[in-house]
Amino acid sequence: MTLHPYTPITMALCFMVIITVCNSAVLSAAGLALVLLLGTAFRRPNVLIATALMGIPAVISFSLMYGLFGQWQSAAELSIRFAAILSGGLLFFSFVDADELLRAMSLRVPAPVVFILGSITRMRQLAQFRLHTIRQIQQSRGMRVRRFSWKYVLLPLIVGMISDAAERSRPLQRTGIARPGPRTVLYPVNDPFAERVLRWVMVAVTVVLSVWVVL
């Protein structure tokens, strides 16, 4: 089952807000356990690895800031809360398809903004392709170049990425990307009524719960 990209984004934001506002160690631990369970069930090992890599430095920092002064309970609560928020955000965002998100945003978000976001999401893929091309060219010349050589690898990579961006912008200017007016998408993203209702319900529950906790 493929979700509309707005649905997992809404889930991620609501999850992180609820964990933050409630400020409960029990709820944070339950949220973290739920995320770990879902990450394992849906086979998202990258989420679990990223959570561990970014969570361990945070745990060490909280331990140094609070544990050295005897406040180990505060350090543990902050560590669990941070891990829950981080893992929840990473897990739900892992269900977002970048292409579908850009197509969904094209109908409501200004086209230049969508183009910038699309360029950012594809930057890693384009950089890897150009880096592979640069290495092939250097090898065809019989050169043995260090992997991150500034002169023979990084500098051509940066110049090439800038040149590619300029080339992609020219046809967009001719199509009138910055002109106002209604726009259409060749392959629109399906947004079922049930998911729209679910998103509004999640937002409403999050707002009500946040107001109730604060007041």
Automatic annotation (TrEMBL):
Keywords of this entry: Membrane, Transmembrane, Transmembrane helix
Compartments, record wording: Membrane
Keyword Transmembrane recorded: yes
Chief localisation class: membrane
GO CC annotations on file: plasma membrane
Bilayer topology term: Multi-pass membrane protein
Name of the protein: Energy-coupling factor transporter transmembrane protein EcfT
Species this protein is from: Corynebacterium gerontici
Phylogenetic classification of the source organism: Bacteria, Bacillati, Actinomycetota, Actinomycetes, Mycobacteriales
